[in-house]
């Protein structure tokens, strides 16, 4: 048995709970492959596990859902992958490591035209944008939508993708720099929520009609105002809670504000079936290869400095996509 390095935590809390440790790396078991990682994606779900918002299955725990690398060993029964294959994933705990074993069912092949670092930067965020725009609500030329955190990792991909689908795309951001960044990534209108009421601005932009769908990964700070941006029978898609969980939600509010619909989707449900994962990844790879969506890696940190990366993410000092480099 060999050894590798990983970042784990033995208690939940702030970024200070992380430890850079040596861990065992056994040969891959049946149905697994072993990969050496080129890069690991940083996502808010990693924060939720670290701070205890989401329960971890055991302690100590190596968090992280997303990464890309090269296959270095193949376990029994694996037919779809071989040594040297370039692969990526978005739904397997344990990404914060230099090398790792992973069930082959979580992996997809990365096209030769896409760098492994780019793949690591886009799998979770890009497939999140894919299911939100194509399946949670079918976005098209007639759609008017509001996307919170427009300058975030999912937001920058979703803005470009929604514009490619022909939608009218409205976003929110927390500074003028982030407003300008979002405007350069497909958004028709971006509201600085620190200086303007996004409800009032959405009503102005839509001539009082409201939007068809609100995509909200913020949670507490944007609820219930997000509901006030919707037209009657519009959809509230709450896919995250970076400011904290939504409280005092009632079904009656949906009726009072216009017979609204609400959903709390997760990527992991939308790619639970192997074919759904393959199809979602293909849609993402296709639109990136078409140059209709650009993947910009705006920050990189050594894996050892993951605590600083988490602190910067939580205090909204980052924009777009952040990578951890093993």
TrEMBL record:
Keywords for the protein's UniProt record, in alphabetical order: NADP, Oxidoreductase
Coiled-coil spans in chain: none
GO cellular component, one term: cytosol
Keyword Iron: no
Transmembrane annotation, as ranges: none
Pfam family, one: ADH_zinc_N
GO molecular function terms noted in the UniProt entry: mRNA 3'-UTR AU-rich region binding; NADPH binding; quinone reductase (NADPH) activity
Location of the Enoyl reductase (ER) domain: 13-324
InterPro entries named among the record's database cross-references: ADH-like_C (IPR013149), ADH-like_N (IPR013154), ER (IPR020843), GroES-like_sf (IPR011032), NAD(P)-bd_dom_sf (IPR036291), QOR-like (IPR047618)
Domain of life: Bacteria
Protein name, UniProt field: Quinone oxidoreductase
Organism name: Rhizobium chutanense
């Amino acid at each position: 048995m060999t050894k590798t390095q990983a970042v784990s935590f033995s208690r939940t809390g702030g970024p200070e709970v992380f430890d850079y440790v040596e861990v065992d790396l056994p040969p891959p078991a049946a149905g697994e492959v072993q990969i050496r990682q080129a890069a690991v994606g940083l996502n808010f779900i990693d924060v939720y596990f670290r701070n205890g918002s989401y329960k971890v299955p055991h302690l100590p725990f190596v968090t992280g859902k997303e990464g890309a690398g090269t296959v270095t060993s193949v376990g029994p029964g694996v037919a779809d992958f071989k040594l040297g294959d370039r692969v990526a994933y978005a739904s397997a705990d344990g990404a914060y490591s230099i090398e790792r074993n992973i069930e082959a069912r979580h992996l997809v092949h990365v096209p030769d035209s896409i760098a492994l670092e780019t793949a690591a930067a886009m799998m979770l965020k890009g497939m999140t944008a894919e299911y939100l725009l194509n399946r949670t609500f079918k976005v098209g030329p007639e759609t008017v939508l509001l996307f919170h955190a427009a300058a975030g990792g999912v937001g920058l991909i979703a803005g470009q993708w929604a514009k490619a689908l022909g939608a009218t795309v409205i976003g929110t951001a927390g500074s003028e720099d982030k407003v300008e960044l979002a405007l350069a990534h497909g958004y028709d209108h971006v509201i600085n929520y620190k200086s303007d009421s996004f409800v009032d601005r959405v009503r102005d932009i839509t001539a009082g009609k409201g939007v068809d769908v609100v995509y909200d990964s913020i949670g507490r700070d944007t609820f219930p105002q997000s509901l006030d941006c919707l037209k009657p029978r519009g959809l509230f898609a709450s896919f995250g809670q970076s400011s904290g969980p939504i409280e005092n939600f009632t079904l009656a509010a949906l009726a009072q504000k216009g017979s609204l619909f609400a959903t709390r989707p997760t990527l992991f449900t939308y790619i639970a079936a192997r074919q759904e994962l393959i199809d979602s990844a293909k849609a993402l790879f296709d639109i990136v290869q078409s140059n209709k969506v650009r993947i910009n890696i705006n920050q990189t940190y050594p894996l050892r400095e993951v605590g600083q990366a988490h602190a910067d993410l939580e205090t909204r000092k980052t924009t777009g996509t952040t990578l951890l480099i093993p």
